[in-house]
Amino acid sequence: MSAPDREYLLEGASINALPKVSLHDHLDGGLRPQTIVELADEAGLELPVRDAETLRTWFESRAHAGSLVEYLKTFDVTVGVMQTADALARVAREFVEDLHADGVVYGEIRWAPEQHLTHGLSLDQAVEAVQAGIDQAVAAVGAGGGFIRIGQLLSSLRQNPGQAGEIARLAVRHRDSGVVGFDTAGPEAGFPASTMRGAFDYLAAEWFPVTVHAGEADGLDSITSALLDGRALRLGHGVRLAEDLIIERADDENTYVSLGLLSQWVKDREIALETSPTSNLQTGAIAHWGETMADHPFDLLYQLGFRVTVNTDNRLMSGTSLSRELSLLADVFAYRLDDLETFQLNAAAAAFLPIEEREELIDRIAAGFDAV
User: Coiled coil: which residue ranges (predicted)?
Assistant: First the structure.
C-alpha cells in the first residue's frame, strides 16, 4: 500500500477520518499514476515508465531534488496529459474524490490555466472544464451521504508576469462559478510579487482574495513583496518567515524568541502560513535549519502563535496525503488530537469563503473532532 493510501492513527483515532481543510494543493501535482498512463496513451505522449506503480516511484524519487526548480521539472509530465477539456475534468474529478477519501471537507485547488492551452482550449474553457470535474465529484460525494466543498485558485506563473493581468481578470470573471482566489506559482527567486503589481492592483480593486507563494525558495524580501505588492491574505508555504525570528537564549525548559517587524506583522494580523512539511524538506525550503522534519520551523511558529496550516502541496510528487502530513508532524513534535484540530481550525478561518461559511466550516470541524 502506498503511503498516501495508508491509515494513520493518533491516540487511537483515525487521522484519515477526521474532518480536514486543504488550502495548498496543486491540481497538476495530485494525479493518479494510472490516470497519467491512460491519458498519455490517448494523447500519444511518451512517459518515462509505463507501469503505474513504477511511475509513482519515478515521481517520488525525483522530488528529493533539494531545490524548487528541480522539483518542478516532473510537472512537464502531468501538465502534458492535461491539455483537453475531458482530461482536465477527469483529473479534477478524481482529485476531489481523493481529497474526500482522505477526510477533507473543504479544499482549495490551485492550478495555472495558461499551462493547459496547447490543444486549443481557451482560458475560460479550461476553467470551465476543471469546474465541471469538481462539480461531478462534489455531487457524487453528496449522493453517497458525504460532504465536501471545493474552490478553485487560479495561479499566474511568476516567470510570465505579462500574463498576470489576464489571469487576474479570468479569476474575477469566474468568481461566481467556482473560483475563490488568485495565486502565484513557479520559480520564486528572482520573480517577486512586485513584477505583477498591476494584476494585484486590479484584484484589490475588485476585492478579490489573494495568496502568494513566498518564503519557500526565497526569503524575507519575497515575503515582504507578497504582503506589500500582492496584498496577500495568506502566504504559500511562508516557512522562511522564521528567518525573521531571533532566538535570544534557551535554557533547559524554555526558548526565548524575539520577532522582527515583518514576522510580528504576520502574526498580529493572523496571516496564514500554508506550510507543506514534506515538500518543504524536498525543495530545500528549510535548509537554513536542517534536513529532517525535526528541523522544520513549523513547531516554533506554532508555539509562537502564528496561524500555521498543514498542506500537501503536491500529493503525487511528495508521495503524501494530508493525513500523512499530520501524522508526520504528530510523530516528530509529539502533537495530540487537540493540536491537529487547531491546524484545521486555522485553515478554516483562513479559507477564501464568506465569514458565515467559514463559521459553518469551523463548526463542522469541531463536531468531527468532538465525536472522536
Answer: none
